[in-house]
Amino acid sequence: MNVQPAWFWRKKNHPSRWSAVMMIAPKLDIHPDTLSKWTRLHERANAPAVSELPDREKIRQLERENCALRQANEILRKASAYFAQAELDRRFRP
Fold this sequence. Notes:
Distance between the termini: 91 Å
Strand content: under 5%
Helix content: over 70%
Number of strands: 0
Radius of gyration: 29 Å
């Protein structure tokens, strides 16, 4: 059974999902809350899985790069603090 999702009806004739559900539910002789729940479940079940997204590998690569950059920043921050402290500890020489 091929049923159009609630957003399809909303785009054509209704300002909101609920108004579409309120129009369709009596025609099907069911409670509007039931139809609303069914449409949400249908949309969730047919949503693309995260693993199917085409940019997933790109995101992984960027996360690895982000981790490496954070480590480099931490090393630079510690080195900067070390050399700043060494500069303060040095005696003044005219």
